[in-house]
Design brief:
This protein has 81 residues and is an all-beta fold. The chain contains no helices and 6 strands. It has a 6-stranded mixed β-sheet, with no helix packed on it.
Amino acid sequence: MRVKLYKMRGLSHQEGKNRLVDLDLEFDGKRAFAIWDSICLGNYKLKARLEINPRLLKKISDECCDFFYRGKLILPTPQNN
């Protein structure tokens, strides 16, 4: 199954600071996922996906991204895993 990837930009709060982050975005039916990281393992691609609220995605026409996420992104950190 081929999934179309989009680009998204969102606001993340890490280490006491707000910052803009650009991530890959994919849809699975009505669900939306920000792709935090991915690695290829032979013929397989493993993805670390964060489910986000698709209602908070705003379609934009920018050369760097397709959507802006209006919610707050809580990204995982290695020390919390």
